[in-house]
User: Fold this.
Amino acid sequence: MKPNFEKKSFEDERDKDQRDINGCDSFAERVRSNQRQLTSELKHQYDFIVCGSGSSGSVVARRLAENPDVSVLLLEAGGSDDVPSVMEANQWPMNLGTERDWSFQGQPNPSVNGRSLPFSMGKVLGGGSSINVMVWARGHRHDWDLFAAEADDPAWNYESILKLYRRLEDWHGAPDPSYRGTGGPVFVQPAPEPNPIAPATVEAARSVGIPTFENPNGRMMEAAKGAAISDVRVRNGKRESIFRSYVFPYMDRPNLTVLTQALVTRLTFQGKRVTGVEMTYRGAIYRIGAAVEVVLSLGAIHTPKVLMQSGIGDEVELRRWGIPVVQHLPGVGQNFQDHVAFDCVWEYQDAIAPRNNLSEAIFFSTSQSGLDSPDLFVCQAEVPKASAENAARFGLPASGWTLFGAVAHPKSRGRLRLTGANPSDPVLIDANTLSDPDDLKAAIACVELCREVGNSAPLRPFVKREVMPGNLKGVELEHFIRDAATSFWHETCTAKMGQDSMSVVDSNLRVYGIDNLRIADGSILPRVTTGNTMAPCVIIGERAAEILQLEHQLQTNLKTVSATP
Assistant:
């Protein structure tokens, strides 16, 4: 028999629990008191264990905890998000390289002039949604239709996902009922009162043939090209992390335990059935059981690492380190993808202070004619930024702005490997950035597009001079690109959903060959989505929760069923 989940409607988001919780001192104190008690009295077993509190895990934990009869343990390796650099939207760069950032480092790569690229990922309540740029980008129609085809499941196609986006959004822009929703848990709005350079950038994109749209997440996600003021998860200058939107309002409840500084190291098994997790917490190793299921939402680097440390992965690699093989899945850790990006910088004519999240304009385009969906995208940064190599070569102005352009669908594929059997051994990241020659061609087109937009008439009032790259051609431009290449912090695709031999999960996010284990994070994407990846990760969390609710909906008391084999 299976436990029951009472299906909740999204209209419940508008009930009393959606008062201004973040600003309510009495509620915050109730949360602190409740969580102190729950974490001081950890149980040996919970119905569900959700590993990772990022943009997917927070959604799963909240949706499961909506049923008061379900006990949920949410584990986070990082600490509290209640610090100014997280809460204040304009301070997000202050988190990079701190204890709130995993600060992964890639292997030296000849395709980027032998450089080792840094890969930031959130290590804090909220995960990436607590340290990112807060841009809400849904992914293109073609992305979701591709995922549905890969999984052979229409629940992942664009029309299905569009309905879900409308239900979960709380849109505070011009009404657009065909594409945007209101009353859901996810506050989204166009960047309010943007820096004048943002609308000028949208107009500059239009001047070079890119159509403008009312916002980037409606019709624009069905077009080959488009420009708009960015949709952001910022309200009154404060960050709206997915953790704060989904989990925090439920942390005063007795059935949701949120444990920080808890590093998941391995899964525990009975045969091929996952029974719980092993974790390090307060200097000790703990094993906690999951009566129903474990959900891995640790992100595209740690999810495959924990799978491999647990014996799920390529059997040759596992045996190399003496790890007993539980399930041979050669796709674990393969297919690593990220948006490779390049900084093009201009010095301000007259400095204007950045606003909101420091990035308020976005445009999508194509690298060649004939494409029906974008393969390039560009976010404007209202500050000057560049790789260390190019900053040293060109210098950065005291005041300036950047067009941060990216290859939307790189063909290069990376791989993650273990460096030892001990969970404390670091993971090796072979990102292989720009290893496919087609990616270099797209990168050249991207930089040329950035220069065309940045040097167009609508932006001239904001320009004293172009700082980088200038009018480089041929080998010199390629060298600039290889030195400029950096991560857009959209690490994904290392435990992909699909049906081929390299797939790790099926369309219901079950790990092939393993019972009671799901993956819900960006690692399940077959291909990185067009644009920023926070919104697609929220969708993955909602889909995972919806699937779990449907699979465990018999009218039975969960506490009775939990002990049933």
